[in-house]
Design a protein that fits this description.
Blueprint lengths: L1 E5 L20 E2 L2 E2 H11 L4 E6 L3 H8 L2 E2 L2 E7 L8 H5 L9 E5 L2 E3 L3 H11 L3 E7 L7 E5 L5 E6 L10 E9 L15 H11 L3 E5 L4 E3 L3 H13 L4 E3 L4 E2 L4 E2 L3 E3 L4 E2 L4 E2 L3 E3 L4 E2 L4 E3 L2 E2 L4 E2 L4 E3 L2 E2 L4 E2 L4 E2 L4 E2 L4 E2 L4 E2 L4 E2 L4 E2 L8 E2 L1
Parallel strand pairs: 1-4, 1-7, 4-6, 9-13, 15-18, 16-19, 17-20, 18-21, 19-22, 20-23, 21-24, 22-25, 23-26, 24-27, 25-28, 26-29, 27-30, 28-31, 29-32, 30-33, 31-34, 33-35
Antiparallel strand pairs: 2-3, 5-6, 7-12, 8-14, 9-12, 10-11
């Protein structure tokens, strides 16, 4: 079985962190999100993954190479963005004329892909969409099912209060090769808006409902939520090799402390916090529900809450970073500065004064 992973997105809502790496290489716990997906595919019987790449393609190629987790990995390169349907059509010759999986690259799920594939074959449609229930379907694509599991209506990002159900498109599909006849050549195509409604009208689109782990990483809040979900699987605090925690520091589960990280005296870390490789945290710090990329440094008595620090970002002493803020790679925040809610600081910026309103620092 082959799987096509749509990995060409720009990650615009996660800038500035996505300015310097593709979203699929963002860390969650002890590995990039890419690895969580690949391991689940390998365990589900997939043998080959086709990566549809565009933005920062070389970073993904360098990281993954030709094989990982016993999967063969090949690359389909887009010269320009082709939406969600265009990359599927472009990869046609790499998919060998058999039913294949398609996954959005920003989705983490423990879906049983074997069951999904068996369900698709049993129904005999051209496409099967994995569906999962959510509290707010308006951000996604909501569906209506008949008693046979056929999707009768497909509404992409419906208005609040007008959703046909709370079941949403989970960004995971099984497609029959005949799907290529429905995707136009040579332009960007949205499979959700242009192809699936046609299949629904022709009664060839089915839904597979599942209730396991599912989260996407479209926004900073989504990313922090995904981190929380993954960390909860550790059932405590996971420590990397060579990590050093002062005896007076407190680590609240769930939490991940990466190899070579150092936590100073009287600091309080967690819960729901990922501290990546070689992060340095001084004394008296408070880090909660946050992600600190490799090499970040936090000076004495600083706090980070519901925020994300990029690679090698530096907070000096008595710095406060508040909810929803993104600190770009190699940025430096000087002593005593407060970064309020929802601030984005571009890579390599130096901030010497507090930022007390939501904005981007270019």
């Amino acid at each position: 079985m082959k799987a096509l992973v749509l990995a060409g997105g720009f990650g615009t809502r996660l800038r500035p962190l996505s300015c310097t790496r593709p979203k699929m290489l963002f860390p969650i716990g002890d590995q990039p999100m890419m690895d969580w997906m690949l391991k689940n595919l390998s365990q589900g019987g997939v043998d080959t993954v086709v990566m549809a790449v565009n933005y920062m393609a070389e970073a993904l190629v360098r990281y993954l190479g030709p094989t990982k987790y016993d999967l063969g990995i090949i690359y389909s390169r887009e010269q320009r963005p082709l939406g969600t349907g265009g990359p599927i059509k472009k990869a046609r010759d790499l998919l060998n004329g058999e039913p294949f999986l398609v996954l959005n690259g920003d989705v983490i799920s423990d879906i049983d892909v074997r069951r999904l594939i068996e369900y698709h074959k049993a129904k005999g449609g051209l496409a099967t969409v994995a569906l999962t229930p959510v509290s707010d379907p308006s951000r996604f694509g909501a569906v209506e099912l008949d008693w046979e599991g056929r999707i009768t209506r497909f509404v992409e990002k419906p208005e609040k209060g007008k959703e046909p159900s709370n079941l949403i498109n989970a960004g995971i599909y099984v497609l029959d090769p005949k799907i290529f006849d429905y995707i136009p050549d040579g332009r960007a195509v949205s499979i959700e808006r242009e192809v699936f409604p046609l299949l629904a009208n022709e009664r060839k689109l089915f839904g597979f409902e599942f209730h396991g782990l599912w989260t996407d990483m479209g926004t900073p809040d989504d990313y922090l939520k995904a981190n929380q979900i993954i960390l909860s699987k550790y059932e405590g605090v996971k420590m990397g090799e060579g990590a050093k925690v002062d005896p007076s520091a407190k680590i609240m589960a769930p939490c991940y402390i990466g190899p070579g990280a150092e936590i100073g005296a009287d600091s309080l870390i967690g819960p729901n916090t990922t501290i990546c490789d070689h992060v340095l945290i001084g004394k008296g710090c408070r880090i909660e529900n946050s992600i600190l990329f490799p090499g970040a440094a936090v000076g004495d008595y600083s706090s980070v809450k519901n925020a994300i620090l990029g690679e090698n970002a530096i907070l000096e002493r008595w710095v406060k970073v508040e909810s929803g803020s993104l600190i770009g790679d190699y940025s430096m925040i000087h002593d005593g500065v407060t970064i309020t809610d929802g601030v984005s600081i571009c890579p390599s910026k130096e901030v010497t004064e507090s930022i007390l309103e939501r904005r981007q620092i270019m």
